[in-house]
Structures are given as C-alpha cells and as structure tokens.
Amino acid sequence: QVQLEESGGGLVQAGDSLRLSCAASGRTFSNYAMGWFRQAPGKEREFVAAIGWSSWTGSSTTYADSVKGRFTISRDNAKNTVTLQMNSLEPEDAAVYYCAAGRFMATIVSRYEYWGQGTQVSVSS
Question: How far is CA 18 from CA 10, 110, 122, in A?
C-alpha cells in the first residue's frame, strides 16, 4: 500500500518554471518506480516522465517527447519524495498532474498501481 500526495501546482506564465513534488507513504518506497502523468480537460491521461527503481547504480529515467529537455524527474528515497522540475512551461503543459507508483518503470497508465489526487498546473500565454 502506497499513498501519494502531489503539491506545487499553480498558475504561471509561459516560459516560467514550476516544481511539483509528490510525497509518498507506505512500505518500500525505494522499490517502486515513480511516474508523472497529466490530464487536460477532454483529453486522456498522458505520460510525462518516470523514474525507475533506486539502486546503488542510480535510477533510470524516461520522458515524453513533448517535455524532453524541459522537465526533469528525480527522487529522494530518504524523504520518500519524487519531484518534477518543469522549465520553459508552455500553455500546452496546462493540466492536472498526477503522481503514480508502480512495480516497474513504464509509460502507460495501466502499469501503475497507486495514484495521487493530482495538482493543477495552469499556464497563461
């Protein structure tokens, strides 16, 4: 059982930056892959970024093409948190952003078992 809670959403102007955080509670957080997804009104929930299991060699990451080079996902297992640093935000990035946890790093919704309630990101042009 993992509980997730997102924070850090808000209203920004295009070109600005925003940092989202996801606080996790539950057992063996370090053994879960973590992902960020977003969902805009009238659209399907889409993959944003993911980070894999933590190990002594580090965690691998993957990004959607639309955010590659602008967003960075990271995790701090000591604090049970995962972060999404979003730079150069565009109006197309506006959505509710969800944090998710799963057994394996993946880019599709169905591969994640636990979800937060989401945090709203609004971007004005």
Answer: 8, 27, 10
Rg (CA), the chain: 13
Q: Which residues pair with 37 in a beta bridge?
A: 47, 98
For the stretch 24-52, pLDDT in tens is 987 667 788 999 999 999 999 999 999 99
User: Are residues 93 and 43 in contact, defined by beta-carbon separation less than 8 angstroms?
Assistant: no
The CB density around residue 61, as the number of other CB atoms within 10 Å, is 15
Nearest to 2 by CA among 101, 82, 96: 101
For the four alpha carbons of 48, 53, 56 and 60, in that order, the dihedral sign comes to negative
| pLDDT at residue 84, as a whole number | 98
Cβ neighbors of 56 (< 8 A, separation 6 or more) are: none
Tokens linked to 50: 């993911």
Torsion of CA 76, 60, 52, 48, to 10 degrees: 90
